[in-house]
Amino acid sequence: MRKILSITFIVCVALFSCRKPETTLPSEEIRIDGSGMHLKYVKGFYLLNEGNMGSNKASLDVYTYDDNTYRRNIFGERNPDVVKELGDVGNDIKIYGSRLYAVINCSNLVEVMRASDARHIGVVSIPNCRYVTFDGPYAYVSSYAGPVAIDPSARLGYVAKVDTATLTVLDTCVVGYQPEEMVITGGKLYVANSGGYRAPNYDRTVSVIDLASFKEIKKIDVGINLHRMCLDRYGMLWVASRGDHKGSESPDRSKTFVVDTHTDELILTLPVPNSNMTICGDSIYVYGTEWNSVTATTEKSFGIIDVRSRQLVSSQIITDGTQDNIKVPYCIAVNPESRQIFISDAGDYVTPGKLYCYSPKGKLQWSVTTGDIPGHIAFF
Amino acid sequence: MVHSSVMAQDFSDIDSVQNIEEVTVYGRRNVPSVIPAQTLAGAELKKLSSNSVADAIRYFSGVQIKDYGGIGGLKTVNIRSMGSQHVGVFYDGIQLGNAQNGQIDLGRFSLDNMEAVSIYNGQKSSMLQSAKDYASAGSIYMRTRTPYFDGDKNNNLDVGFKTGSFGTANPSVLWEHRFNDKISSSVSAEYLYTTGRYKFSYSKVDGYDTTEVRRNGDVSALRAEAALFGTLNDGRWRVKTYFYDSERGYPGASVREEPGKFKNEDRQWDRNFFVQGSFNKTVASFYNVMVNAKYAYDYLRYMSDPRLDVSTMFVDNRYRQQECYLSAANEFTLFKWWSLNLAADYQYNTLDADLNEFVYPRRNTVLAAAATSFNVGGLMLQGSLLYTFVRDRTDIGGATAGDKHEYTPSVIAKYKPFKKHDFNIRAFYKRIFRMPTLNDLYYTFIGNKYLKPEYTTQYNAGFFYSREFKRSFQYLEVQADAYFNQVEDKIIATPTSNQFQWTMLNLGYVEIRGIDAVVQTTWLFGGKVQMNTRFSYTYQKAQDFTDKNSPYYGSQIPYIPWHSGSAVIGLGYRGWGLNYSFIYTGERYESVANIPENYAQPWYTHDMSLSKTFNIGKVRLRATGEINNIFNQQYEVVQCYPMPGTNFKIKINVMI
């Protein structure tokens, strides 16, 4: 019996491995095939992976053109002293001046880094922060967490005005329900109010804030569940609605709207499903991924809109037949110099996603594995 | 008569457990089970350092507990990696339901009045059991204390108090009364309060090192049960009411935050009530009948209040479930070697929720089971067929899922090749499904009415061996099983166009290959010092084969360690009891992407308890001290849900 026990013990020790001291995960370097490209202005881009809510897995990747290398998960390695890494759900990333700003939604903060190497500088504390934009010495951050009304479910969001020098919130301006993306032009800030938490009573407005007084001066009635925004060079504001998630048959499906920022009026509604868009020159690249809860299927579409004619000029972006590689398009960006088109794929959301790079003509050039839910790109 | 011995086990070991307690014999001799089964009962169960049934179940092999940490954190059990919703949980013989999400929080069930906790792979193989006993891929049976009176005593009273770490106060009382030879009663009540606060730390050797306090994990819970037990000529009955009322904080995931800036204040209230009755009788030498009935009401309120925590959005949802259940089972012993079980169950469930566009589902379930058992020589063969019919109704016609008609078989065999040795070879095959829950189908926006049932197929082969010795080494029991399971049409939550909008899909296919092994021994040194040991080991290779084109095709599914095990060593000497227990969970991944970012460290905890029983006249007093996680290991069972470090507990019980 002693023998049996001692054998059992040895087997146990052999099988049961012990804990290793936990170290910061190193980043992973991926050489992209081919010689890469040498551009005059654009050196590369950062990609923010959202990571699933509650998993603290937001992560930062970087691609540089000169060595044609993609580096995955660089934040921890470059900032080993930042407690619990980048945080929970990365929702937006932008470069302004020499700094890189990452909005970390469920960590309730904006992480401010050096744009050159993503080293931590500081944080701006904003509860339930969503998107960031800039003007002069200020950053503007949209947030769901406005003042709580008598009916706590009717809680408006706000836009916070942040001093980029001191990283403090100077002022807030209450807007609509669950505000999302913002655009600044002509001394005014436009923010898309979604009301996503109030379904089916979504918000349908764009709030206009006068930046000088930092007061909301108008609400433009546009459409339900607004999310994305971009501005063309003619002063037209393009706004995307997520729709009611009931698919292509629904009158309230995802759409694209145009607001004239000279008059602050809605001037056009395009029946183009719009989950995300990016503007480059006079072209808006757009995709729609609509969940149809009636048929339990995903409806996927791509398109290019000419902002001069305000028409869909192409219903494809990818021209080499590789669009079916993308399971769930999750972000889109166009390199302003090379005009390469980048589209990310969130896949099943719980495993690493993919980033696809297409030529300006829509031919696949390369692809790379990202972090979980690759969501936002900022060129530098 | 294997079937009747299993049957007998169910009722007779109630007494044997009592006897164990009275004479404080350590260990429990299992009747060789035709199906892989494990039981912790009586003194052995009492001595484990456990707050709840979930903690005790960790000692079984083939089981993984998902534990969100602390006393109040959700704890669900997963048997052989098929998923927690495939586990049927039975309380005194009748299944605990949760039609809403199919999830039973075993952390809610106290061990205070628990007599035995058993786990069955496949199904319990009694020949007199309800159709529901056939309807899960694996089952847990919790059995509360049945009154037992020494000599001419007519009352038993046990008053207890527990206190210790996490600001815990836990008084309890149990009163058993004998009205006459035929009827007795039991009343049991317990109150638990804990602040749920504990320190935890996260660190990297080359980077940050932080220690924080887990907060908003407080629990305040009241449990009250009353039962009547009766015997009749060749029969018995029992009626039980159960009430549980709790309020708890929901501490949430521990993610990056500015320290102390925003405090999680989410709260949850639960109220559960049920009344259930059971009756069984031997009508004729060849015919036994059992009737079970139950009514249950469950209320849950979840609130997230931005007035308390500005970072959160307002949520205040109430869910109300009702369940009615009726079952009849009939056992026919046609010959000594051939018996039959015919059972039929009916169940009605409703779910109300104050959600927008909610469809108020109602579910009718009919189950019918036919089983037969042959017992010839050393060979025992059982086969069963279960028919399940499910019809849902909702307030909006087009929202209703279609009717389901499913037939699921099982075959069980056991062979005892040697008359003189208690060595048994056993095998089973079973195919069963779980219905999509009412949430899966109908939860506003998330639900998907097109969901199909999620099927599991199990193949198992193993052995059971036991032997008694006349030396200080008194008893040895070894059981081991190897198995292959398939989970088809696995219901998976997946985000749709953004990560705040999820839905349910029949997406997954998983194959599980595993080995469960348990070795138990009993020793007696010098006629006075008793020792009892229990070792368990589990190997599981649980692979996701959902998508051939995925780079993670064939990877280990989340949170399933390849290796896990436990060890328990108990020593007893003249009313003293010393117990050591060890739990090991090996390395695993938090996602099917088995990459370094998702790697989860192994964890292992060492617990010790010391108890002493005194007799002061007619009063018995037991004092127990516990120290858990002795080496203060900082670990997580679920990503971002830190577990407590070293903690203490003191228990005093006064028994009259």
Task: Write a structural description.
The complex is a heterodimer of chains A (about 375) and B (about 650). Chain A has about 375 residues and is mainly β. Chain A has helices at about 1-15, 75-80, and strands spanning about 30, 45-50, 60-65, 70, 90-95, 100-105, 110-115, 120-125, 130-135, 140-145, 160-165, 170-175, 180-185, 190-195, 205-210, 215-220, 225-230, 235-240, 255-260, 265-270, 275-280, 285-290, 295-305, 310-315, 330-335, 340-345, 350-360, 365-370, 375-380. A five-stranded antiparallel sheet of chain A has the order 1-4-3-2-29, with no helix packed on it. Chain A has a four-stranded antiparallel sheet with strand order 5-6-7-8, with no helix packed on it. The longest helix of chain A has 14 residues, at about 1-15. The termini of chain A are far apart. With about 650 residues, chain B is mainly beta. Chain B is about 5% helix and about 60% strand. Chain B contains four helices and 36 strands. In chain B, the strands form six sheets. Chain B has a 22-stranded antiparallel β-barrel. In chain B, a hairpin with a 6-residue loop joins strand 21 (about 405-415) and strand 22 (about 420-435). The longest helix of chain B has 22 residues, at about 1-25. Chain B is globular. Chain B starts with a helix and ends with a strand. Mean pLDDT of chain B is about 90; it is low at about 1-30. The chains are: A mainly beta (about 375), B mainly beta (about 650). Chains A and B meet through helix 1, strand 22 and strand 28 of A and strand 24, strand 25 and strand 28 of B.
